[in-house]
Specification:
Blueprint lengths: L24 H9 L5 H14 L2 H8 L7 H14 L5 H9 L5 H14 L5 H6 L6 H18 L9
Helix pairs in contact: 1-2, 2-3, 2-4, 4-6, 5-6, 6-8
Length: 160
């Protein structure tokens, strides 16, 4: 065992990379956009921006979906769900709706939309319930059930 173990974040998760301890939002955004930077450093930046929690940090995360790394794009969607910032919804809807996007990213975008808890995404999630990728369809079902649970005083099974 190593001398150091990853800690639990303020979001209750053990992240695959610790956030940067120093830096500015501008510096983190630049590093995140740098396709030549080591993935570990880019991941650290993802969690730094998530922990910042501002709309500006959320938009910086959203602007990194151009990355060639599906793993990074997946992690971006995941942390946007953790942040629960509705500012991310247009980007998440775009990622879910792009059938050329990696299935891992689309799945995480759907779950993030549910985690944000905004009912405006119901039509988009319902539209993807029959997606040919079961990971996407099932993630939309989970997100819809979560939204149903959020708006109901007592959760009941739904059939979308």
């Amino acid at each position: 065992m190593t001398e150091r173990a990853p800690g639990v974040s303020q979001y209750g998760s053990v992240d695959p990379a610790p956030p940067q301890n120093v830096g500015t939002l501008k510096e983190w955004s630049a590093l995140l956009m740098d396709e030549n930077a080591p993935m570990f450093q880019r991941m650290r930046t993802v969690f730094s921006l998530r922990n910042d929690g501002s709309d500006e940090a959320c938009l910086a995360l959203c602007s990194a979906f151009f990355s060639s790394s599906a793993l990074l794009r997946h992690e971006l969607a995941y942390v946007l769900g953790q942040m629960q910032n509705p500012t991310a919804l247009p980007t998440l809807i775009e990622r879910l709706s792009d059938d050329k996007e990696h299935v891992m990213v689309r799945h995480e975008a759907a779950e993030a939309m549910g985690a944000i808890g905004d009912l405006s995404v119901l039509p988009v999630l319902k539209a993807h319930l029959n997606d040919p990728n079961p990971e996407v369809a099932e993630s939309c079902e989970v997100a819809l059930d979560l939204l149903q649970w959020c708006k109901s005083p007592q959760w009941e099974e739904t059939s979308w």
